[in-house]
Amino acid sequence: NEIYLQGLAGTTPAFTTDATGLEAAAEKVLEPGPFSYVAGAAGSGATARANRAAFDRWKIVPRMLTDATHRDLATTVLGTPMPAPLALAPVGVQTIVHPDGELATARAAAALGVPMILSTAASSTIEDVAAANGDGPRWFQLYWPGDNDVCASILARAKKEGYTALVVTLDTWTLAWRPGDLDQAYLPFLHGDGVAVPFSDPVFRARLEKPPEDDPASAILRWISMVTGTDKAWAQLPFLREHWDGPIVLKGIQHPDDARRAVDAGMDGIVVSNHGGRQVDGALGSLDALPGVVAAVGGRTEVLFDSGVRTGADMIKALALGADAVLLGRPYLYGLAHGGEDGVRHVLRSLLADFDLTLGLSGHRTVAELGAADLVRT
Ligand code: FNR
C-alpha cells in the first residue's frame, strides 16, 4: 500500500521496483569486476539460464471468489518464525558492492524480520553482523574447513552470537570455471574488506606465519586451501552435529538420492540449489530438481529452495512445488549496490509486496494453501 500511495503522490521509488530491471540498474553503479562476479555464472551460463527457463515453464492457475482479502504470509522454518517464507541466501564478500556490506544487509533484514544467512566468506565478522542484526533472525552458512579446530572455533562463535541454524554448503568444494572472473583476473576475496570471518578467527590466525593484515594474499590462499578439496564425505556429518546443537541444513542438493541420504543422516533440512548457476555449467534448472527431491524426502525434512527466484510468482511456484521457504540471492546484492541498507530494504519490500498481492490474486490466503494443483507445466 505504501509503495502504491507514494506513487499516487507522484513520488517515484529510489530505484526500480521491477525485479527484472535490478541487474541492469546495478551494472550502472558497479565497477566491471564486482558486477561480473555477482551477475556472472559458471561456464556458458547454461545453468543460470535453465534456472529462469524452469520458472517460465511452470504457470500459476489462479482461483476466484476465495475471499483472499486478508492474507497471512507468516510461517516457521527451521524453528525460526518468519513474516513470509523468504530468507536471504548467503553471499560472501559483500563489501565489494557497497562499503557497508553485510552490516547493511543485516540491518535491512532485521528491519523486516527476514532471516539472513551469513556466509563464511563474509567481509564482516560474525560478531559485528550479529550486532547489526540485533534481534533479527539469523543463520550461519559454513564453508566446511578441513581443519577441524578452525571449523569448531567458527561454529562456536556463530552459536554464541545467536545464529540459530547451520547451513552447510556442499556444492562449492572448489570454485567452478567462471570465465567472467577469469577474464578480468578478479578474485573478490582480495577486494572490499576481504574475508573477515576466518581472518578474525583466533584458531585460524594461529595457523598463519604472518597476520592477515600484514600478508592478506598468503592468508587468503591458506583459507582457500582449507575449504577446498574433495575429502569431505557423508560419514563426517556427525562432526558438525557434535559442534552444533541447532538445526543443520545441507545446501546444494539436487539429486533425490542425495536428499534421501540427507534424511538418513538426520539432517533438519536441505536447500535445493545450484548456487545460482555458478558451479556446474549444464546442470538442470533448480526448479526442475525440486519436485523429485520433495517426493524423495516425503516430508521427513524441511526443504528450502534457491537459484533463480526473482518475483512473487517465482516464490509461489517454488512453494507450490513443495518448498517450505525460498532464499533470495543476487537481487538483494543489486539493492545493496544501489543504496546500501535502504537498497536491500527496497528490494525485500518490493518482493514481499509482489508475493502478497500475487498470492491473494491467485486465490490464496496462506502459504499452507499452496500445492501442486495450483500450477501447470507448459
Ligand atoms: C553466492 N552464493 C553463495 N552461497 C554460499 O553458500 N556461500 C557463499 O558465500 C556464497 N556466495 C555467493 C556470492 C555471490 C556473488 C552470489 C551471486 C552467490 C550462492 C547463493 O547463496 C545462492 O545459492 C544463489 O545466489 C541463488 O541464486 P540467485 O537467487 O542468485 O539466482
Automatic annotation (TrEMBL):
Residues 11-378 form the FMN hydroxy acid dehydrogenase domain. The keyword Oxidoreductase applies. Pfam families: FMN_dh (PF01070). This is Lactate 2-monooxygenase. Its cofactor is FMN. SUPFAM superfamilies: FMN-linked oxidoreductases. Coiled coil: none annotated. Belongs to the FMN-dependent alpha-hydroxy acid dehydrogenase family. PROSITE patterns: FMN_HYDROXY_ACID_DH_1, FMN_HYDROXY_ACID_DH_2. InterPro entries: Aldolase_TIM, Alpha-hydoxy_acid_DH_FMN, FMN-dep_DH, FMN_HAD, FMN_hydac_DH_AS, LMO_FMN. Keywords: Oxidoreductase.
